[in-house]
C-alpha cells in the first residue's frame, strides 16, 4: 500500500488548504519557507526522504479537525466545562484536546504521512499520522456514523492528514465513552495504543508515560495559546462553508417541521420578537458560536414529536425537555460524549431505526442526529422502548436512569419488600438528581420562560443558568 505525494495540494482539498492558510502560524511558516498563497505548497521531508508534518502544521490540522467535526463533543476526560463553567474554560479544554492528538502523533508516527506498521497480533496494518487501521476507520463509518470522509474500499485515503486525524479523533471519542462509561485520559491513551483489553495492562504503562512526557513538551505552545485567549476573550475562529449549516434552522430541519414550528404560538411569538424570517431562522449561539435551542424551542419540538408519534405512550414534553438540559444543555451538537440535543448516539439511533422500527426519520450518519427533530424523535423512541424494557412496565426512575447510563448498567436489589435501582457509576446518581430538579422547575416555569423573561446570566423565574 503506497501513495505518492509531493505537495500539500495533493493530499488535501481546496477548503482544507484555505483553512491552513488562514492559520497565522502556518501562514508565517510557509511564507518564511518561500511558499506563496495560490501556488502549490511543498510537503516537508526528513533526511531519509520521509514526508512529515511540522509541529506547526500538525497542530493546525488537529485544531481544524476538532473545531469542524468534534467541537463540544470529543473526549469528555478533557472537557472541563459543564453547566456552571465559562466559555473561556471550554476554549482552553479544546486546546488540551488538540495537545492529546498532537502528542499521540509524535509518539506513534513521528508525524509522518506515510507511516505504516503491521501488528502481528491483530493482523492489521496501521497507517498514517494517527496510525489508524483501515478496518477501524471502516467500522467508524459503518457502525458509528462518521461519514464526513468516505473511505470504504479506498484505504489509501487514510494517508491524507485531515482524513487520518478525523478518524483518529473519532476513535478517541469512542474510547472516551466506551461501554457507556466516561473514561480517564490514561485509559483512553493506553487503549488507543493496545486496545481496550490492554488499557490496564502493564504493556501499555510505558506508552502512557511517554505520552505524558511528549504532552508536557507541548505545554509552552498551549500555555501561549491559553494566554492569548485570556487576553482576547474570544474563541479561535475556524469558519468554512460547512459552518453555514449551523447558522439557520432551515438548513438542518425539513420544511414540514419548520412549518409546524411557525404554527406553534410560543415559537411564533419568540421568533417574531427576535426578527426571524421564514427561510432564514437563526439558531441562537453562545460566545463560542455553538448553536443551541431556547427553552421555548425545545419545548415546542418535544410537543410536536409527542403529539405526532407518541401521544398514547404517556411521555411528557417536560420530561424530554429536562433530558435535553441534562444531556446537552440544549446545544444542537451535544456536549461531552453525548451526541445531539437528546444525547442519543448513532449506534443507538441506527438500532432503533433498523431493529425497533422507528423509521419516521432516517438516520444514515451521525450528522443526522444534529437535527433537533431527529434527535428528539429518537430520544422519545428510546424512552418509549425503555418503558417496556424486557417486556414489563418500568418505573419512571428506572427509565430516566436507564436513559442516562444504559439499562444494562442498572442493577436491581431487593431490601425487605422494597425494590430499588442503583447505577454502577456514582456520577449518574448526580445526573438523576439534576434531572429531577430540572424537571420540577420546568414543569412550573417552562411555559413562561422566554427570551423576554430570561436575562443573559440567570433565569429570573427558575434560577438556573440560562441562555435566553
UniProtKB/TrEMBL annotation:
InterPro entries, sorted: Lysozyme-like_dom_sf (IPR023346), Transglycosylase_SLT_dom_1 (IPR008258)
Gene3D superfamilies: 1.10.530.10
SUPFAM superfamilies per UniProt: Lysozyme-like
Pfam family, one: SLT
Protein name, per record: Transglycosylase SLT domain-containing protein
Organism of provenance: Ensete ventricosum (Abyssinian banana)
CDD domains: LT-like
Domain of life according to the entry: Eukaryota
Transmembrane segments: none
Domain Transglycosylase SLT positions: 112-199, 311-417
